[in-house]
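queue> pop job 88
queue> type: inverse folding (structure -> sequence)
queue> payload:
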Protein backbone atom coordinates (compact mmCIF):
# COMPACT_ATOMS: atom_id res chain seq x y z
CA UNK A 1 0.00 0.00 0.00
CA UNK A 2 1.51 3.32 -1.12
CA UNK A 3 0.36 6.67 0.31
CA UNK A 4 1.66 9.48 -1.91
CA UNK A 5 1.14 13.13 -0.92
CA UNK A 6 2.11 15.48 -3.80
CA UNK A 7 4.77 13.06 -5.07
CA UNK A 8 5.67 15.14 -8.14
CA UNK A 9 6.38 18.40 -6.30
CA UNK A 10 9.92 19.59 -7.09
CA UNK A 11 10.60 16.67 -9.44
CA UNK A 12 11.65 17.42 -13.02
CA UNK A 13 9.81 16.05 -16.04
CA UNK A 14 12.23 13.16 -16.52
CA UNK A 15 11.94 12.08 -12.88
CA UNK A 16 8.14 12.29 -13.05
CA UNK A 17 8.14 10.07 -16.13
CA UNK A 18 10.30 7.49 -14.36
CA UNK A 19 8.04 7.61 -11.29
CA UNK A 20 4.94 7.13 -13.44
CA UNK A 21 6.48 4.14 -15.19
CA UNK A 22 7.43 2.53 -11.89
CA UNK A 23 3.98 3.12 -10.38
CA UNK A 24 2.17 1.93 -13.50
CA UNK A 25 4.03 -1.38 -13.22
CA UNK A 26 3.47 -1.72 -9.50
CA UNK A 27 0.83 -4.12 -8.18
CA UNK A 28 0.54 -2.19 -4.91
CA UNK A 29 -2.61 -0.30 -3.97
CA UNK A 30 -2.08 3.47 -4.10
CA UNK A 31 -3.78 6.47 -2.50
CA UNK A 32 -2.54 9.66 -4.17
CA UNK A 33 -3.07 13.30 -3.24
CA UNK A 34 -1.85 15.43 -6.13
CA UNK A 35 -2.50 18.53 -8.23
CA UNK A 36 -0.51 17.11 -11.19
CA UNK A 37 -3.28 16.36 -13.66
CA UNK A 38 -1.11 14.59 -16.23
CA UNK A 39 0.31 12.35 -13.48
CA UNK A 40 -3.18 11.54 -12.18
CA UNK A 41 -4.47 10.75 -15.67
CA UNK A 42 -1.78 8.13 -16.15
CA UNK A 43 -1.88 6.25 -12.84
CA UNK A 44 -5.40 6.53 -11.36
CA UNK A 45 -8.43 4.26 -11.77
CA UNK A 46 -10.74 5.89 -9.22
CA UNK A 47 -11.23 9.44 -7.91
CA UNK A 48 -12.51 10.88 -4.65
CA UNK A 49 -13.55 14.52 -4.96
CA UNK A 50 -13.50 16.48 -1.69
CA UNK A 51 -15.55 19.62 -2.29
CA UNK A 52 -17.73 21.76 -0.04
CA UNK A 53 -17.31 19.33 2.89
CA UNK A 54 -18.57 16.42 0.77
CA UNK A 55 -16.75 13.45 -0.75
CA UNK A 56 -17.92 12.16 -4.12
CA UNK A 57 -16.63 9.01 -5.78
CA UNK A 58 -15.94 8.44 -9.47
CA UNK A 59 -15.19 4.84 -10.51
CA UNK A 60 -12.92 5.94 -13.31
CA UNK A 61 -9.50 7.54 -13.65
CA UNK A 62 -8.77 11.27 -13.54
CA UNK A 63 -9.06 11.52 -17.33
CA UNK A 64 -12.84 11.37 -16.80
CA UNK A 65 -12.90 13.70 -13.82
CA UNK A 66 -13.30 17.09 -15.50
CA UNK A 67 -16.35 16.16 -17.59
CA UNK A 68 -17.89 14.35 -14.61
CA UNK A 69 -17.34 17.21 -12.15
CA UNK A 70 -18.63 19.81 -14.63
CA UNK A 71 -21.78 17.74 -15.14
CA UNK A 72 -22.36 17.59 -11.38
CA UNK A 73 -21.70 21.32 -11.07
CA UNK A 74 -24.12 22.11 -13.89
CA UNK A 75 -26.88 19.99 -12.31
CA UNK A 76 -26.36 21.69 -8.96
CA UNK A 77 -26.35 25.11 -10.60
CA UNK A 78 -29.71 24.43 -12.24
CA UNK A 79 -31.12 23.28 -8.90
CA UNK A 80 -29.84 26.46 -7.29
CA UNK A 81 -31.48 28.57 -9.95
CA UNK A 82 -34.79 26.81 -9.48
CA UNK A 83 -34.64 27.57 -5.76
CA UNK A 84 -33.72 31.20 -6.59
CA UNK A 85 -30.97 31.37 -4.01
CA UNK A 86 -29.51 34.83 -3.56
CA UNK A 87 -26.51 34.12 -1.38
CA UNK A 88 -23.10 35.33 -2.49
CA UNK A 89 -21.89 31.85 -3.31
CA UNK A 90 -24.66 31.41 -5.89
CA UNK A 91 -24.00 34.85 -7.38
CA UNK A 92 -20.32 34.06 -7.78
CA UNK A 93 -21.15 30.71 -9.34
CA UNK A 94 -23.55 32.30 -11.84
CA UNK A 95 -20.91 34.89 -12.78
CA UNK A 96 -18.26 32.24 -13.40
CA UNK A 97 -20.40 29.18 -14.12
CA UNK A 98 -19.75 26.13 -16.22
CA UNK A 99 -21.34 27.52 -19.39
CA UNK A 100 -19.38 30.76 -19.24
CA UNK A 101 -16.15 28.92 -18.45
CA UNK A 102 -16.64 26.52 -21.35
CA UNK A 103 -17.30 29.38 -23.77
CA UNK A 104 -14.33 31.34 -22.47
CA UNK A 105 -12.02 28.32 -22.54
CA UNK A 106 -13.12 27.43 -26.08
CA UNK A 107 -12.27 30.94 -27.22
CA UNK A 108 -8.91 30.77 -25.49
CA UNK A 109 -8.28 27.34 -26.98
CA UNK A 110 -8.84 28.74 -30.48
CA UNK A 111 -6.50 31.67 -29.77
CA UNK A 112 -3.87 29.30 -28.42
CA UNK A 113 -4.13 27.09 -31.53
CA UNK A 114 -3.69 30.18 -33.73
CA UNK A 115 -0.69 31.38 -31.74
CA UNK A 116 0.90 27.93 -31.91
CA UNK A 117 0.39 27.81 -35.68
CA UNK A 118 2.04 31.21 -36.03
CA UNK A 119 4.95 30.09 -33.86
CA UNK A 120 5.29 26.88 -35.89
CA UNK A 121 5.55 28.88 -39.10
CA UNK A 122 8.19 31.18 -37.62
CA UNK A 123 10.22 28.21 -36.40
CA UNK A 124 9.88 26.44 -39.76
CA UNK A 125 11.19 29.46 -41.62
CA UNK A 126 13.90 30.07 -39.04
CA UNK A 127 15.22 26.52 -39.20
CA UNK A 128 15.25 26.64 -42.98
CA UNK A 129 17.36 29.81 -43.10
CA UNK A 130 19.28 29.57 -39.79
CA UNK A 131 18.02 33.08 -39.08
CA UNK A 132 15.06 34.14 -37.00
CA UNK A 133 14.94 37.72 -38.21
CA UNK A 134 14.12 37.35 -41.90
CA UNK A 135 10.60 35.86 -41.67
CA UNK A 136 9.33 38.59 -39.37
CA UNK A 137 10.98 41.79 -40.58
CA UNK A 138 7.60 43.39 -41.16
CA UNK A 139 6.67 42.67 -37.50
CA UNK A 140 9.84 44.00 -35.91
CA UNK A 141 7.88 46.23 -33.54
CA UNK A 142 6.60 43.07 -31.85
CA UNK A 143 10.03 41.57 -31.15
CA UNK A 144 10.75 41.16 -27.47
CA UNK A 145 13.78 38.83 -27.29
CA UNK A 146 15.93 37.77 -30.24
CA UNK A 147 18.61 35.13 -29.65
CA UNK A 148 21.10 34.02 -32.32
CA UNK A 149 23.44 31.05 -32.07
CA UNK A 150 24.20 31.34 -28.34
CA UNK A 151 26.44 28.99 -26.37
CA UNK A 152 27.16 28.76 -22.66
CA UNK A 153 29.41 26.49 -20.59
CA UNK A 154 30.27 26.20 -16.90
CA UNK A 155 33.39 24.41 -15.70
CA UNK A 156 33.85 22.67 -19.03
CA UNK A 157 30.24 21.48 -19.10
CA UNK A 158 28.18 22.65 -22.06
CA UNK A 159 24.76 24.08 -21.12
CA UNK A 160 23.81 25.56 -24.50
CA UNK A 161 25.39 25.14 -27.92
CA UNK A 162 24.26 27.07 -30.99
CA UNK A 163 20.72 27.85 -29.83
CA UNK A 164 18.53 30.48 -31.51
CA UNK A 165 14.99 31.70 -30.98
CA UNK A 166 12.75 34.70 -31.42
CA UNK A 167 10.17 35.61 -28.78
CA UNK A 168 7.45 38.06 -29.78
CA UNK A 169 4.72 39.85 -27.90
CA UNK A 170 2.01 37.38 -26.90
CA UNK A 171 4.26 34.32 -27.00
CA UNK A 172 4.06 31.89 -24.09
CA UNK A 173 7.25 29.91 -23.88
CA UNK A 174 7.72 26.87 -21.63
CA UNK A 175 11.24 25.81 -20.61
CA UNK A 176 11.64 22.16 -19.61
CA UNK A 177 14.44 19.75 -18.75
CA UNK A 178 16.03 17.86 -15.91
CA UNK A 179 17.00 19.61 -12.69
CA UNK A 180 20.47 21.00 -13.35
CA UNK A 181 20.01 20.98 -17.14
CA UNK A 182 20.39 24.78 -17.36
CA UNK A 183 16.80 26.04 -17.44
CA UNK A 184 17.49 28.95 -15.08
CA UNK A 185 20.69 29.77 -16.99
CA UNK A 186 18.74 29.98 -20.25
CA UNK A 187 16.11 32.24 -18.69
CA UNK A 188 18.77 34.57 -17.28
CA UNK A 189 20.39 34.79 -20.71
CA UNK A 190 17.01 35.56 -22.31
CA UNK A 191 16.45 38.36 -19.78
CA UNK A 192 19.95 39.78 -20.24
CA UNK A 193 21.01 39.01 -16.67
CA UNK A 194 24.01 36.96 -17.79
CA UNK A 195 25.87 37.00 -21.08
CA UNK A 196 26.33 33.97 -23.35
CA UNK A 197 29.84 32.79 -24.18
CA UNK A 198 29.13 33.19 -27.90
CA UNK A 199 26.24 34.46 -29.98
CA UNK A 200 23.99 37.45 -29.43
CA UNK A 201 20.92 38.39 -27.40
CA UNK A 202 18.88 41.42 -28.38
CA UNK A 203 16.14 42.70 -26.05
CA UNK A 204 13.33 44.86 -27.29
CA UNK A 205 12.91 48.43 -26.00
CA UNK A 206 10.94 49.38 -22.88
CA UNK A 207 10.80 45.93 -21.33
CA UNK A 208 9.18 45.66 -17.90
CA UNK A 209 10.02 42.25 -16.45
CA UNK A 210 8.27 40.56 -13.53
CA UNK A 211 9.96 37.43 -12.15
CA UNK A 212 8.24 35.05 -9.72
CA UNK A 213 10.57 32.51 -8.14
CA UNK A 214 9.82 31.04 -4.71
CA UNK A 215 13.54 30.58 -4.07
CA UNK A 216 14.18 34.29 -4.73
CA UNK A 217 11.19 35.54 -2.76
CA UNK A 218 11.76 38.77 -0.83
CA UNK A 219 8.79 38.44 1.50
CA UNK A 220 9.66 39.42 5.07
CA UNK A 221 8.27 36.93 7.58
CA UNK A 222 6.63 39.56 9.79
CA UNK A 223 4.98 41.70 7.10
CA UNK A 224 1.22 41.30 6.72
CA UNK A 225 -0.50 40.33 3.49
CA UNK A 226 -1.71 43.91 3.11
CA UNK A 227 1.85 45.22 3.50
CA UNK A 228 3.07 42.69 0.94
CA UNK A 229 0.44 43.78 -1.60
CA UNK A 230 0.48 47.51 -0.76
CA UNK A 231 4.06 48.26 0.41
CA UNK A 232 3.50 52.02 0.05
CA UNK A 233 0.54 51.92 2.48
CA UNK A 234 -3.17 52.52 2.07
CA UNK A 235 -5.83 50.09 0.92
CA UNK A 236 -5.56 50.39 -2.85
CA UNK A 237 -3.54 48.07 -5.13
CA UNK A 238 -2.53 49.33 -8.55
CA UNK A 239 -3.30 46.39 -10.83
CA UNK A 240 -1.93 46.94 -14.33
CA UNK A 241 -2.34 50.68 -13.79
CA UNK A 242 -5.87 50.51 -12.35
CA UNK A 243 -6.68 50.95 -8.61
CA UNK A 244 -8.42 48.11 -6.77
CA UNK A 245 -9.22 47.64 -3.12
CA UNK A 246 -6.69 45.32 -1.53
CA UNK A 247 -9.40 43.04 -0.09
CA UNK A 248 -11.07 42.57 -3.47
CA UNK A 249 -7.75 41.88 -5.19
CA UNK A 250 -6.68 39.43 -2.49
CA UNK A 251 -10.01 37.64 -2.88
CA UNK A 252 -9.14 37.03 -6.55
CA UNK A 253 -6.26 34.90 -5.26
CA UNK A 254 -8.45 33.04 -2.75
CA UNK A 255 -7.41 34.99 0.35
CA UNK A 256 -10.08 35.83 2.90
CA UNK A 257 -10.38 39.36 4.25
CA UNK A 258 -9.47 38.24 7.77
CA UNK A 259 -6.12 36.94 6.40
CA UNK A 260 -5.00 40.41 5.33
CA UNK A 261 -3.67 41.16 8.82
CA UNK A 262 -1.84 37.84 9.19
CA UNK A 263 1.95 37.74 8.84
CA UNK A 264 3.54 36.16 5.79
CA UNK A 265 5.23 33.65 8.11
CA UNK A 266 1.85 32.08 8.89
CA UNK A 267 1.13 31.23 5.24
CA UNK A 268 1.37 27.72 3.83
CA UNK A 269 3.58 27.01 0.83
CA UNK A 270 0.66 27.28 -1.57
CA UNK A 271 -0.58 30.54 0.00
CA UNK A 272 2.90 32.08 -0.20
CA UNK A 273 3.08 31.06 -3.86
CA UNK A 274 -0.30 32.70 -4.54
CA UNK A 275 0.85 35.89 -2.78
CA UNK A 276 4.00 36.08 -4.91
CA UNK A 277 1.94 35.68 -8.06
CA UNK A 278 -0.57 38.31 -6.90
CA UNK A 279 2.26 40.81 -6.39
CA UNK A 280 3.83 40.03 -9.76
CA UNK A 281 0.57 40.19 -11.72
CA UNK A 282 -0.32 43.54 -10.15
CA UNK A 283 2.83 45.22 -11.46
CA UNK A 284 2.80 46.69 -14.97
CA UNK A 285 4.89 44.29 -17.04
CA UNK A 286 5.24 43.05 -20.57
CA UNK A 287 7.43 40.04 -19.71
CA UNK A 288 6.32 37.68 -16.95
CA UNK A 289 8.63 34.86 -15.83
CA UNK A 290 7.20 32.14 -13.58
CA UNK A 291 9.63 29.61 -12.10
CA UNK A 292 7.75 26.44 -11.04
CA UNK A 293 4.48 28.37 -10.50
CA UNK A 294 2.36 25.27 -9.80
CA UNK A 295 4.30 23.96 -6.80
CA UNK A 296 2.07 23.63 -3.71
CA UNK A 297 -1.05 24.82 -5.57
CA UNK A 298 -4.29 22.85 -5.58
CA UNK A 299 -6.31 22.22 -8.75
CA UNK A 300 -8.81 25.02 -8.02
CA UNK A 301 -5.96 27.52 -7.72
CA UNK A 302 -4.34 26.14 -10.86
CA UNK A 303 -7.56 26.82 -12.77
CA UNK A 304 -7.57 30.37 -11.43
CA UNK A 305 -3.93 30.92 -12.37
CA UNK A 306 -4.51 29.57 -15.87
CA UNK A 307 -7.42 31.99 -16.33
CA UNK A 308 -5.27 34.93 -15.24
CA UNK A 309 -2.33 33.93 -17.43
CA UNK A 310 -4.55 33.21 -20.45
CA UNK A 311 -5.57 36.88 -20.41
CA UNK A 312 -1.98 38.17 -20.02
CA UNK A 313 -1.09 40.13 -23.17
CA UNK A 314 2.69 40.22 -22.75
CA UNK A 315 5.36 37.53 -23.09
CA UNK A 316 5.03 34.64 -20.64
CA UNK A 317 8.04 32.42 -19.85
CA UNK A 318 7.22 29.31 -17.81
CA UNK A 319 9.85 27.13 -16.15
CA UNK A 320 7.71 24.19 -15.13
CA UNK A 321 7.49 20.42 -14.72
CA UNK A 322 3.67 20.45 -14.86
CA UNK A 323 2.91 18.96 -18.28
CA UNK A 324 -0.83 19.66 -18.22
CA UNK A 325 -0.20 23.29 -17.20
CA UNK A 326 2.24 23.67 -20.10
CA UNK A 327 -0.23 22.08 -22.52
CA UNK A 328 -2.95 24.54 -21.52
CA UNK A 329 -0.81 27.68 -21.85
CA UNK A 330 2.36 27.34 -23.93
CA UNK A 331 2.61 28.39 -27.57
CA UNK A 332 6.09 26.85 -27.78
CA UNK A 333 8.31 24.64 -25.64
CA UNK A 334 12.10 24.83 -25.28
CA UNK A 335 13.70 21.63 -23.98
CA UNK A 336 17.26 21.26 -22.68
CA UNK A 337 19.05 17.95 -22.29
CA UNK A 338 21.81 19.22 -19.96
CA UNK A 339 24.53 18.38 -22.50
CA UNK A 340 24.32 21.45 -24.70
CA UNK A 341 21.35 20.54 -26.87
CA UNK A 342 18.28 22.77 -26.80
CA UNK A 343 15.37 22.54 -29.20
CA UNK A 344 12.16 24.52 -29.56
CA UNK A 345 8.86 23.00 -30.67
CA UNK A 346 5.56 24.78 -31.32
CA UNK A 347 2.88 23.93 -28.76
CA UNK A 348 2.98 22.49 -25.28
CA UNK A 349 4.42 19.36 -23.67
CA UNK A 350 2.29 16.89 -25.67
CA UNK A 351 3.31 18.53 -28.95
CA UNK A 352 6.97 18.49 -27.95
CA UNK A 353 6.91 14.87 -26.83
CA UNK A 354 5.11 13.65 -29.94
CA UNK A 355 7.52 15.47 -32.26
CA UNK A 356 10.68 14.69 -30.26
CA UNK A 357 10.01 11.35 -28.54
CA UNK A 358 13.69 10.50 -28.19
CA UNK A 359 14.97 13.84 -26.90
CA UNK A 360 14.34 13.08 -23.22
CA UNK A 361 14.17 9.32 -23.72
CA UNK A 362 17.96 9.19 -23.96
CA UNK A 363 18.22 10.97 -20.62
CA UNK A 364 15.67 8.60 -19.10
CA UNK A 365 17.56 5.56 -20.38
CA UNK A 366 20.73 6.81 -18.71
CA UNK A 367 19.21 7.03 -15.24
CA UNK A 368 18.39 3.35 -14.57
CA UNK A 369 21.86 2.41 -15.80
CA UNK A 370 23.37 4.62 -13.09
CA UNK A 371 21.30 2.98 -10.41
CA UNK A 372 22.11 -0.48 -11.77
CA UNK A 373 25.88 0.08 -11.42
CA UNK A 374 27.18 -1.97 -8.49
CA UNK A 375 28.31 0.16 -5.53
CA UNK A 376 31.94 -1.07 -5.60
CA UNK A 377 32.30 -0.07 -9.25
CA UNK A 378 30.91 3.42 -8.56
CA UNK A 379 33.22 3.88 -5.60
CA UNK A 380 36.20 2.70 -7.61
CA UNK A 381 35.30 5.11 -10.43
CA UNK A 382 35.17 8.01 -7.99
CA UNK A 383 38.53 7.12 -6.49
CA UNK A 384 40.07 6.67 -9.91
CA UNK A 385 38.74 9.81 -11.51
CA UNK A 386 37.58 12.44 -8.99
CA UNK A 387 40.06 14.45 -6.98
CA UNK A 388 40.31 13.76 -3.26
CA UNK A 389 38.56 17.05 -2.51
CA UNK A 390 35.66 16.19 -4.84
CA UNK A 391 35.37 12.67 -3.44
CA UNK A 392 35.09 14.05 0.07
CA UNK A 393 32.59 16.72 -0.97
CA UNK A 394 30.43 14.11 -2.74
CA UNK A 395 30.44 11.87 0.32
CA UNK A 396 29.51 14.81 2.57
CA UNK A 397 26.62 15.78 0.31
CA UNK A 398 25.23 12.24 0.24
CA UNK A 399 25.10 12.33 4.04
CA UNK A 400 23.93 15.92 4.38
CA UNK A 401 21.02 15.84 1.90
CA UNK A 402 18.97 13.23 3.82
CA UNK A 403 19.69 15.13 7.05
CA UNK A 404 18.35 18.34 5.53
CA UNK A 405 15.29 16.49 4.25
CA UNK A 406 14.56 15.33 7.79
CA UNK A 407 15.07 18.82 9.22
CA UNK A 408 12.72 20.32 6.63
CA UNK A 409 10.03 17.73 7.34
CA UNK A 410 10.20 18.43 11.09
CA UNK A 411 10.07 22.21 10.62
CA UNK A 412 7.14 21.94 8.21
CA UNK A 413 5.29 19.76 10.72
CA UNK A 414 5.99 22.30 13.48
CA UNK A 415 4.82 25.25 11.39
CA UNK A 416 1.67 23.39 10.35
CA UNK A 417 0.35 23.81 13.90
CA UNK A 418 -2.39 26.44 13.46
CA UNK A 419 -1.95 27.74 17.03
CA UNK A 420 1.85 28.00 16.96
CA UNK A 421 1.98 31.64 15.80
CA UNK A 422 -0.54 32.85 18.38
CA UNK A 423 1.34 31.04 21.17
CA UNK A 424 4.82 32.29 20.31
CA UNK A 425 5.21 34.64 17.35
CA UNK A 426 8.98 34.96 17.82
CA UNK A 427 9.49 31.20 17.83
CA UNK A 428 7.27 30.89 14.77
CA UNK A 429 9.35 33.49 12.92
CA UNK A 430 12.61 31.74 13.88
CA UNK A 431 11.23 28.38 12.72
CA UNK A 432 10.20 29.99 9.42
CA UNK A 433 13.70 31.39 8.96
CA UNK A 434 15.21 28.00 9.80
CA UNK A 435 12.98 26.33 7.25
CA UNK A 436 13.97 28.82 4.55
CA UNK A 437 17.67 28.31 5.37
CA UNK A 438 17.33 24.51 5.28
CA UNK A 439 15.45 24.60 1.97
CA UNK A 440 18.07 26.90 0.44
CA UNK A 441 20.90 24.69 1.72
CA UNK A 442 19.21 21.56 0.33
CA UNK A 443 18.72 23.21 -3.06
CA UNK A 444 22.37 24.25 -3.12
CA UNK A 445 23.49 20.77 -2.02
CA UNK A 446 21.44 19.10 -4.75
CA UNK A 447 22.93 21.39 -7.41
CA UNK A 448 26.45 20.67 -6.13
CA UNK A 449 25.78 16.92 -6.07
CA UNK A 450 24.43 16.98 -9.63
CA UNK A 451 27.49 18.91 -10.83
CA UNK A 452 29.89 16.44 -9.17
CA UNK A 453 27.98 13.44 -10.54
CA UNK A 454 28.03 14.96 -14.02
CA UNK A 455 31.78 15.53 -13.71
CA UNK A 456 32.36 11.98 -12.49
CA UNK A 457 30.33 10.51 -15.35
CA UNK A 458 32.10 12.61 -17.98
CA UNK A 459 35.44 11.41 -16.62
CA UNK A 460 34.29 7.77 -16.70
CA UNK A 461 33.08 8.15 -20.30
CA UNK A 462 36.37 9.79 -21.25
CA UNK A 463 38.55 6.93 -19.97
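queue> result:
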Amino acid sequence: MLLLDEPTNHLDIVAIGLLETRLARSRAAMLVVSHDRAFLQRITRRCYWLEDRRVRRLDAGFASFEAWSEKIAAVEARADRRLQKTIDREQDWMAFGVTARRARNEGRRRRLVALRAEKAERLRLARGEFSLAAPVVHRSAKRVIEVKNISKSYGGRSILAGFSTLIQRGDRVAVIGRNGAGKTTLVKILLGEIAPDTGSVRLGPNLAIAYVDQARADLAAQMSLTEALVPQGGDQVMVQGQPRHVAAYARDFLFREDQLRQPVASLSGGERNRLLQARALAKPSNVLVLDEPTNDLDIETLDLLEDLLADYSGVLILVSHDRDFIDRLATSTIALDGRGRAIETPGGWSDFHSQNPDFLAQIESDLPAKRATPPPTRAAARVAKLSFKDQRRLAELEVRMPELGGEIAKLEETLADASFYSRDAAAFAEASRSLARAQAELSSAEEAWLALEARRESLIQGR
